[in-house]
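Board notes (copied after class):
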Amino acid sequence: MLGLLPMDLNTGPWTRKSSTLCSLLLLLTIAALAVPGQDKSEIVGLGRHTKDGENVTLVDNTVIANRANFDDLADCNFRKLYPDACDVTIEDDYIELRYNYGSKGCTVDLLSENKSNINTIKFTTGVRNPRGGNLTRCLDDGATFEKSHNNILPFVYSVNNTAIKRFNNKGPYNGTDACYNKPSCRGTNGKCMLRTFLEVSWSWSSEQVYAYTHLVGERVSQSVQQEQQLAGEMTFNLTISSASAFTMWFAKEKTFNATEDAVCVPQKDPIVEPVTWTITKGDHIGKHLLVFSLLQQNATFVYVDGKRKGSPGGPYCELFVQFDTANYSLLVVNTSATTAPPTTTTTAATTEAPTTGTSETPRTTTSSLPTP
């Protein structure tokens, strides 16, 4: 647009006036077309699709990955073009995303054909020892949320890539006047938030495993805590049904109102709303896209004596999320049909987590990479 400014053409007064007038008319036309708020398109998901309002256009060559074709689709070329892809496995019944020590977070694009999931997100989340064996070797001992920060998994959904990058680097959006109870929030070393996202975490005590679902950045009590008898691998189901409610099913089913007793978030709609976007073109027209991201540890906080104290450095166990294939399919870009990669970043290999109560030597592995 800067190149369209009037030029100093010394070919006569009428020519100069005509040139200037034409340039000004062109600038006015561009200004009229570029009214703030008219262009609402956003880049979303690993495939860098284009979202406009509640609709989304998938990039070319976006296909469904399944057990039969996944190895071919997720070949070395795919990993080179999409280093931000999650460490993922597709089974007959579920799609599993894994989150290990040093993970920088990752994003998946999920296709939903189930109309009941348009404004609801359902998944199973769990914990296992990455080296096998008892969970007590990687979980911290304690029956409170504060004892779970070494095995915490923050996540977000239904937001664009700019928001994901912000959450990964700085956590939730802050807002000076957004607090429901500003004095109490400050008492936790917290900050008022315009909205936040959720996290799940784990600890153990007295042969019981404790699972937590918590609002990131909120006070410690703003969470659901349940326990079960210790086993080799533990999971629970989580359903997010609105911007203020979710249901956790570990020892029992419990629905949690995220606005009750909250202090650092608004009273209305304190968490990201679970939505999918309607696909408007291509083979999947009329179906819905869900963008889901596992966030890095910088997105959340450690709590000591009820107060925020920096970010955690785990997880020490392997944490994971599973999506039922009856509800979701994994979308990837077929890189054998395209050579145009999205803008991505790379990261070096990291070491696996130190274990609790063991002297095993960590081995080197390649972690999942940051979201785009």
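Comment from the instructor: Confidence is low (pLDDT under 50) at residues 1-37, 343-372. The first strand starts at residue 41 and ends at 44.
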